[in-house]
Design brief:
Blueprint (H helix, E strand, L loop, with lengths): L11 H8 L7 E2 L11 H8 L14 H11 L6 E4 L1 H13 L3 E6 L4 H6 L5 E6 L10 H8 L5 E5 L11 H13 L3 E5 L9 H4 L11 E6 L12 E4 L3 H10 L7 H12 L1 H23 L4 E3 L6 E6 L6 H10 L2 E2 L1 E2 L10 E5 L3 H14 L8
Parallel strand pairs: 1-11, 3-4, 3-5, 5-6, 6-7
Antiparallel strand pairs: 2-8, 7-8, 9-10, 10-13, 12-13
């Protein structure tokens, strides 16, 4: 019996080896990274400051925190830089030591992996496809009454690209505050949202002590190799406890310097948002018109699409696309996602048009392979 391989969004080397393809010939729609690549301003700045590697970074990352504070309009002492959001997730869970955790799913698997080392129980609250993956806040609050002390949200969510908007988020955070439930909000994709202020929970860190918002530069700023993320909380006591557990100089000198330069590059931020917002809308409308695909209003830089034709699987569509040099994500490995789903991010216009063509062709396959 043949077993179909399961690939992660970053498994491009593994995929190329399996399909005998060259990495440079693949357009990666699976990694959700800004197609503009690293900012030219940041690239030039790094090249001119390589001597930073000869000195330790500032242990307090004072200049970096001040830059982030200006970028997010929050106090600098709310901010904890780290070695990517992965380190911050692990530090948060270790410091909090939750007993019973609820995860909004389907979502990123790293939350579950880190929780598995903590001794906490972990359950999923399933966003429902029939509700277009929109959250029912009242229902979630009802479930949270069952003894949970930690809630994990990704907003906008991966892989659904759905979002909890400001009013619902405030209602949810108010409930959690009243019931001593700590909330972690991963905002990896929030800078791609049509209106960032309508989605971000950063402003609520001034109001709610049991809240930490995580951000990073991997996706929006196209710098996954930098391994730089930051946490935001108004709970200074909790933040200090996280710092005590953090490895000194967690973020290297180049990463700290480059992080500052990224947040200052307003032209890059503007170009990114113009590209993603226009192309996302074009892709969303185009896919919505293709028979046998169902898609959902996107807030991140990617679309989740359900295949609703019998005999066509997510693997079928993935394989059709990869053989054309277009790597999308087969979502069959996501927990809490029942059915045939694919996910793809927004790339440059020409590549997006090529993908639309392959998606159209893939769905025309006759069930049974005839």
């Amino acid at each position: 019996m043949d077993t179909k391989p399961v690939f992660h969004g970053s498994d491009i080397e593994k995929i190329c080896d399996y399909y005998h393809l060259k990495k440079e010939d693949i357009t990666n729609f699976g990694a959700n990274v800004n197609p503009l690549g690293l900012s030219e301003h940041v690239r030039s700045a790094i090249a001119g400051h390589l001597d930073l590697l000869s000195s330790y970074p500032d242990r307090e990352y004072t200049s970096l925190r001040n830059t982030i504070a200006g970028y997010r309009r929050i106090p600098a002492d709310y901010i904890l830089p780290g070695n990517g959001s992965s380190e911050l997730i692990a530090l948060l869970i270790e410091t909090l030591a939750p007993k019973h955790t609820l995860i909004l799913g389907p979502t990123y698997s790293e939350y579950s992996r880190e929780l598995s080392f903590s001794g906490s129980t972990q359950d999923y609250y399933h966003l429902r496809e029939e509700d277009y993956f929109h959250l029912d806040v009242d229902d979630l609050c009802h479930v949270l009454k069952n003894g949970y002390d930690f809630l994990i949200l990704c907003n906008p969510n991966n892989p659904t690209s759905s979002a909890i908007l400001r009013e619902d988020m405030e209602r949810l955070l108010t409930f959690c505050s009243e019931h001593n439930i700590f909330v972690m909000v991963d905002e990896t994709y929030v800078e791609f949202a049509p209106d960032v202020s309508a989605v971000t929970a950063v402003q609520f860190t001034r109001k709610f002590a049991d809240l930490m918002v995580l951000r990073g530069v991997s996706k929006f700023f196209a710098a996954p190799g930098m391994r730089f993320g930051y946490g935001i909380t108004g709970n200074r006591q909790f933040l200090e406890k996280m710092k005590e557990k953090q490895i000194p100089w967690s973020l290297n000198s180049i990463g700290a310097f480059a992080g500052e330069e990224m947040f200052k590059d307003q032209e890059y931020i503007r170009r990114t948002r113009e590209l993603i917002l226009s192309e996302r809308e074009r892709m969303y409308q185009a896919v919505s018109r293709i028979p046998y695909y169902k898609t959902y209003e996107p807030y991140a830089n990617f679309l989740l699409v359900k295949i609703v034709r019998d005999g066509i699987t997510s693997y079928d569509v993935f394989e059709r696309c990869i053989k054309a040099g277009l790597m999308i994500r087969d979502c069959s490995s996501f927990q809490c996602l029942e059915g045939e789903f694919i996910r793809f991010c927004i790339m440059m216009p020409e590549a997006n048009t090529r993908l639309l063509h392959e998606l159209q062709q893939a769905i025309q396959k006759i069930p049974g392979g005839q």
